[in-house]
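Why DUF3048 domain-containing protein? Reviewers of the renewal asked for a concrete example.
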Amino acid sequence: MRKRWLILFSALCLFMGGCMHEVKAPRPNPEPVETPKQPDISTQEVFPLTGLPAEGAVNHRVIAVMVNNHPKARPQSGLQKADIVYEVLAEGDITRLLALYQSEFPKKVGPVRSARDYYIELSNGYHALYVCHGWSPEAKAMLESGTTDYLNGLFYDGTLFKRVSFRTAPHNSYITFANIKKGAAEKGYLLQDHIDPLPFRIDAPKGEQADKIDIMYSHRGYAQVQYKYVPDQKSYFRYSAGEQTIDYDTHDPIQIQNVLVIAAKHNVIDSSGRRSIDLVSGGSGYLFQNGIVKQIEWENVNGRILPYENGAPVGFMPGKTWINVVPDLNIVKW
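Here is what the prediction returned.
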């Protein structure tokens, strides 16, 4: 019996020993592997209306402000920050300026002036929030139709819009961008938007030299515009009536990389001298870049005035753009 127990005990030990040899030690946790960093694509983004490198978001909604260009309104505030400025005749031989802001915003802008229907059409081409002070009958009907988000100083005079003491009405209405933001919030207007970019070029323009441009909206000095190209700044500087266009507050000069001049049909429609201007049918024009002029055809593409050559779009140089609308290209010299 004792011998049988010894045999059974020995067999059990051998069995247990075999099991113990089959138990494997737990595997150690692997060392954490650092995930390679992806390139920061935000640094590759550019602003849609200037083509210049952007830091942060590029989806701020375009703000379009109707800026007074009467001699008594000069120099204006905030124009140096505008991405695009349209200069178009209002009544008589005085132009008004539609300043489009998207990549940067001044503290304030003005003097702000009244709306006309064709300025609203240009603003709508960028789905902009339109800012004005007053309106023509045609502009009033268009804005009250509900197709355009707008802030009108007629309803915010002394609140969102402020009158300055150093100028007289109607050349003294100003608005800050803080108040534009406040007014948009009160009206429920969104200030973020997807903005289709303009076409931009990376090659240098070729063509006839044009370092100085003269645009004579009339024989009167105050209605004459001039641009001078400064090569070391790679910019055009603007002049009205022989005076350089600067910012009233900072004294910074207006510097422009693209000057587009287009001819469009103008018609006087009432006894006040208001006009209709055909900004739809297209026509001829000139594009000035880097001190070079190119003859172009312009087209209205979804509300935007764009230059074309042989049916293909001509890219803008990255930077600021001014677009002068004239009744006849004969008033343009270089």
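Confidence is low (pLDDT under 50) at residues 1-42. This is the kind of structural detail the renewal will allow us to pursue systematically.
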